[in-house]
Amino acid sequence: MLASITLLVPPASPSPFLSFSRFSPSISASVSDLVRVTSRRLAWASKTESIATMATEEDECMGSVKAQLAKLFEVSLKVTVPNEPDVEPLIAACTGKFGDYQCNNAMGLWSKIKGKGTQFRGPPAVGEAIKNNLPTSEMIESCSVAGPGFVNVVLSKSWMAKSIQKMLSEGIDTWAPMPPVKKAVVDFSSPNIAKEMHVGHLRSTIIGDTLARMLEFSKVEVLRRNHVGDWGTQFGMLIEFLFEKFPNFEDATETAIGDLQAFYKSSKQRFDADPAFKERAQQAVVRLQGGEDKYRRAWAQICEISRTEFHKVYKRLGVHLEEKGESFYNPYIPGVIEALTNQGLVEESQGARVIFIEGSNIPLIVVKSDGGFNYASTDMAALWYRLNEEKAEWIIYVTDVGQQQHFDMVFKAAKRAGWLPHSDSSYLKASHVGFGLVLGEDGKRFRTRNTEVVRLVDLLDEAKSRSKAALIERGKGEEWTEDEIESTAEAVGYGAVKYADLKNNRLTNYTFNFDQMLNDKGNTAVYLLYAHARICSIIRRSGKDVEELKNKGTLVLGHKDERDLGLHLLQFPEVVEEACTNLLPNVLCDYLYNLSEIFSKFYSNPECKVVGSDMETSRLLLCEATAVVMRKCFNLLGITPIYKI
Ligand SMILES: NC(=[NH2+])NCCC[C@H](N)C(=O)O
């Protein structure tokens, strides 16, 4: 199948994820000239695009507040320490009260330059110089040096207000990050045909969808891959059992078979108990892999029945996936293994053919001792395909942490083969997004009462019916149409399941608890969805046309609570960037929760009265900006917003 294998050459030293957003700047002309020169050097220059195109793109793509400040500090660092050209600005949001952002380069720089005949007398002096050499910019109101040389920046209120208003009139997409990657594969969900789709697959589906959404928002082309387990020796047994149960196997529809998992169990029992059946099942695998028509059709039918079941879950979750199952890569395996063998990477070990991996005491088995292929052979072929045929630059795998070692070995083998660069600091790269277990109230693996596996469709239906019951209890049955009740119950119920999963650091285990996740207080989707609906109702109550205000009105961040809210809104681009770069959806959840807390503080302050005050227009704009950013967060988390409660 593979005529030749082209090996990918890793790109030459790509730069960090720095100029990340199209969030537009208002830096003065001279500074922006300087900035353009430096950021051009910083731009990810491993592709063959001309510098000219990159420069025009950059004119509009100046990045998040953090990235914009980084550019200004880069200019200053160049002047401050001309002999240290490779110093990268270290910019962080301040936690203390001395400023909004700080530049943390002074101490590190001092240890580099001391004793080299520098004119500086310690880190505070370096900080002072960094501050003094900072180009003037409309962004910055004031700067000060604190402690051992931290340079604190206070942003200008009018610049902040203008930036938020610009987002309101041009749309939240202007705040999208711009990672230096064009195409990514997100391999997620990926259940196994005829086996249970368990809560682990639910986590993978929810986390993978969010990561895909964040990348899509960032204008990355995402291949949403469902790497279903549709190949392997279990199919021999399933097909034989199908023939036995349904002599006319084409009649074996979903309704006729009923539960495919039960079907799997019975066929396994038959396989274990009857040697003649076992023999036939083994033959069936050979005939299926040999491409015999009847066997292929039976296999396709079993896959189709499973698929129908998976789709019920995807439909409820609103998740879109494109299936390329294990079987798809099967024809590519021999060619890939041959190429790896020709490179001298594949060795014989106890009858199997393996790739040894540095630092691992077990090798990666790519051909089993019986000559068959396995999970790892498929993953090597899939990775090869994704890099060479699909030309993806970032390949992301979302599975439970139990598979970490497997992926670690696959990635290391790919690095040995020269498919991927050794360092993960650049794109091209592969990343494993591991996650912990879902636990039940008893602290053990989540199961239903009779210790059977949990049917995901039932789980989601229960979330919906519980949230529907809560709406009815609150009297919405009389107030709302049936459709409104249904769609709100879905938004809240499914949103609650997703958010309860996403808000935790994905590596930790979490306890599944309906009462907790459907609580309207605390860090839950219900609380956040209601907070958003309340903001919408404030705007409605004002009777003003907010679209009109966006262009005619002026936003002012006069009060401290208004400024705090404005600052948090402006941090959205860098938070998405962080969540996306580190593949951590909980970072976005934390941001969203804090946003609603900061909004409450503003809204409940009598000094910040919105409707009917003389600052009404400005405050309505701030409410609208909050609602817009909240909706984008919901959208990235795969949660449907609600507009009234
Ligand atoms: N390329 C991959 N191996 N993707 C993940 C597949 C997950 C596997 N089917 C499972 O259920 O555990």
Automatic annotation (TrEMBL):
Residues making up the signal peptide according to the UniProt record: none
Taxonomy, superkingdom: Eukaryota
One GO CC term on file: cytoplasm
Sorted UniProt keywords: Acetylation, Aminoacyl-tRNA synthetase, ATP-binding, Ligase, Nucleotide-binding, Protein biosynthesis
Reactions accelerated catalytically: tRNA(Arg) + L-arginine + ATP = L-arginyl-tRNA(Arg) + AMP + diphosphate
Catalytic activity, EC: 6.1.1.19
PROSITE patterns associated with the record: AA_TRNA_LIGASE_I
DALR anticodon binding domain sequence ranges: 528-645
Family: Belongs to the class-I aminoacyl-tRNA synthetase family.
HAMAP family attached to this UniProt entry: Arg_tRNA_synth (MF_00123)
Function: Forms part of a macromolecular complex that catalyzes the attachment of specific amino acids to cognate tRNAs during protein synthesis.
Protein name (record): arginine--tRNA ligase
Highest classification ranks of the organism: Eukaryota, Viridiplantae, Streptophyta, Embryophyta, Tracheophyta
